[in-house]
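Recall that a protein's primary structure is simply its ordered list of amino acids. Everything else, from secondary elements to tertiary packing, is in principle encoded there. The following example makes that idea concrete.
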Amino acid sequence: MKKNSKLLLGIVWIAVAILCFCINKIVVGIPWLLIGLLNIYFYIMSHKIDKKANIKYTQNTFDDNTYEKVYDTIKVLDEESMIQNEYIGYGYSVNKAFKEAKSHAGEVELLCTYAPNSEYGCEGVLPYIAVQIDDAVYCAVEEYKSTKSFNGAINLEQLNGKFMFRAKQEYYDDMMYFYGFEHSEDDYWDMAGLCLVYPKQYVGTVNEEKLMQILDKAAQSFKKIN
């Protein structure tokens, strides 16, 4: 607010200067004009400083989660933490290399992202684990109900119990390994999946094996919490 007042004052002072010029009081108007221009200059410079500070903050925030670092070796920590939402009524335990993150997408819930060296996860970072109900997952579950398979399924395995199947599929430019399930109309979800999304560069590597094992353990713990 204080910074915006500099802009407002600058405009007012320049307006007064223009008025002075219009009534031929040029000597009086020049100081008003100069002060007005100075206020606008300070306003512009303060915004440039804020922008640089924001860029630096963003770089520091994402530094531990950049793809270049993630591609080296996936860390598997010795502890697990609970990812849960009391409103949804479900949760799961996951390796502490993944940290809870805020999701702004309605199709993504119970999100956690790979952040072994950070306190919190960050939306948009890969790999991530979440319950998803977007078209790619919903349609896969719906098709599986009729055909016991779905278009694009890789390594599909039929399951019994809380999950119908687990499988991999290409997910836009990435890869998804997920557990498909269907819940009754009384639950928060209808057809959905507990999903792991990761870069295609991991396919066939030890990193992929580690991540799949992490999701397998998380799936075993997936449950209602109230």
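Strands lie at 80-85, 90-95, 98-100, 108-114, 128-132, 154-158, 165-171, 174-182, 191-199, 223-224. The first helix runs from residue 2 to 22.
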